[in-house]
Specification:
Layout lengths: L6 E2 L6 E2 L3 E6 L10 H9 L4 E8 L6 E8 L3 E2 L2 E2 L14 E7 L2 E6 L5 E6 L4 E4 L4 E6 L5 E8 L7 H6 L3 E6 L2 E6 L6
Antiparallel strand pairs: 1-2, 3-4, 4-5, 5-13, 6-7, 8-11, 8-13, 9-10, 9-12, 14-15
The structure holds 5-phospho-D-arabinohydroxamic acid and zinc ion.
Length: about 190
């Protein structure tokens, strides 16, 4: 393993050099957004990529990092968001350092604590171990953030897909508002 300077484009999320990437489209979010009709209408109009994740991973290292670039947009009153997850390893945290755009990072514990952190350029959010996290683009431009965590952290998506998150971020009169999720199940 050798040290390396990796270039990150704060506006596009491009990582140079990178070792992997994936994109997520609206059709993969049928169990995530509440407004099924709005989601189906958007998918029929063209199944948009709502976010892209690019990583830099050195084989054998304990940590790795990358970017998430989230497009602006909404499904009904809900802004484009990530799936949201706990880490498979409950002793692994993460940081999210916002490069451009604006958003909200929703966090929650298994026993009912919730927090919201504003994502704006210069904010580095500390995500403690075993706090679920979901990012939401509440702005009108791409939201780009750098994440860094342990390679062995892993993802547990099932909990959030099946139960939802305790809080939702909705657009109301042009303003983003956090509200309790009426469909959240314990
Ligand atoms: C991030 C997220 C990324 C996409 O790299 O995986 O922002 O979000 P979802 O994985 O919830 O769709 C991270 O938190 N890794 O642990
Ligand atoms: Zn994570």
């Amino acid at each position: 393993m050798f040290p390396e300077g990796v270039t990150i484009n704060a506006l596009t999320g491009e990582v140079t050099p990178s070792t992997g990437e994936y994109t997520k489209r609206l059709s993969e979010f049928r169990r995530i957004y509440r407004d099924i009709k709005a989601l189906d209408d958007l998918i029929s109009a063209g199944d948009l990529v709502t976010y892209k994740v690019v990583e830099y991973r050195a084989e054998g290292s304990d940590i790795f990092f990358g970017t998430t670039t989230m497009m602006p947009g909404r499904v009904g009153a809900e802004y484009f968001m990530t799936r949201g997850h706990y880490h498979a390893r409950r002793d692994r945290g993460e940081i999210y350092y916002t490069q451009s755009g604006q958003g909200i990072l929703l966090l929650q514990t298994r026993d009912g604590e919730t927090r919201e952190i504003d994502m704006m350029p210069g904010t580095c959010a500390f995500i403690p171990p075993d706090w679920a996290h979901r990012s939401i683009n509440t702005g009108e431009t791409p939201l780009v953030f750098v994440w860094c965590c342990n390679q062995d952290a892993g993802h547990d998506y099932a909990e959030i897909v099946t139960k939802g998150m305790r809080m939702l971020v909705m657009e109301k009169d042009g303003v983003s508002t956090c509200v309790p999720n009426p469909n959240f199940t314990v």
